[in-house]
């Protein structure tokens, strides 16, 4: 837990509210997946729920459930401002998420799995059982409901994949 939070600290050191929210997530994740003993787990879970309410939902204005699996060095340049991450979502290491992003399920179909070093633009929605590959970019306000391969860029509503080896059209520059 502390090693993961140290990498979060390096990625977000200028935003103390975001650091409080990420510490709360790491604490809750550790309690949910690593605490043995019914009484201890319930007691620590209660502490987590209070921290979640204060630091994540009220102060940071977002949702980052302890059950979600988030890799190291999650970078939130604008804080947790409006970011909603589903309890069953999986997010890789070194991911950058801008404000007002939703990573969630769609009609009981499943949850997104986001690879390593992905950049997710402001207002993007990643919905359902999609796989977002490593080093992919999700454009601002894109609605991703299909898989995005490694090194690709997804833009539009619904999002379409643009392979980075191809030239980017003028209207998207």
TrEMBL record:
<comment type="similarity">
    <text>Belongs to the transferase hexapeptide repeat family.</text>
</comment>
<keyword id="KW-0808">Transferase</keyword>
<dbReference type="InterPro" id="IPR005881">
    <property type="entry name" value="Ser_O-AcTrfase"/>
</dbReference>
<keyword id="KW-0677">Repeat</keyword>
<dbReference type="Pfam" id="PF00132">
    <property type="entry name" value="Hexapep"/>
</dbReference>
<dbReference type="InterPro" id="IPR045304">
    <property type="entry name" value="LbH_SAT"/>
</dbReference>
<dbReference type="InterPro" id="IPR001451">
    <property type="entry name" value="Hexapep"/>
</dbReference>
<dbReference type="InterPro" id="IPR011004">
    <property type="entry name" value="Trimer_LpxA-like_sf"/>
</dbReference>
<dbReference type="InterPro" id="IPR018357">
    <property type="entry name" value="Hexapep_transf_CS"/>
</dbReference>
<keyword id="KW-0012">Acyltransferase</keyword>
<protein>
    <recommendedName>
        <fullName>Serine acetyltransferase</fullName>
        <ecNumber>2.3.1.30</ecNumber>
    </recommendedName>
</protein>
